[in-house]
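Subject — a protein and its fold
Fields — amino acid sequence, structure tokens
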Amino acid sequence: MNFDSTSLWQREKALQRLAGNHALLKRVVKMFVEQIDEKYLTLTTALSNKEQEEVRFISHAIKGVSGDVGAELLRHKASSIEILSASDNWDEIEVQVNGLAEVIDATKSEMVAAHA
């Protein structure tokens, strides 16, 4: 799936949040890229175990770190999962979580390509 790069990563907004500190943005993005796959794995494990509160907690955490680095589409998708986690609609939660993987990969690629 193709994504609009501005919806994936709003680099300038992230830079503004960090008072224009390019070095800090680079460090924050590096940490994000290194840690987001682990968070996603934790989310998929919670989903497999139908741990409703853990799905909510991890999707909330993904939403937060995504917002911190300006990964807007990822933040939006994680927010949707967080909201859905209040339901017992495990089939739809699974669809959304599976779709999240593609957004994560595309976002990381966009960040790495831009060299933060």
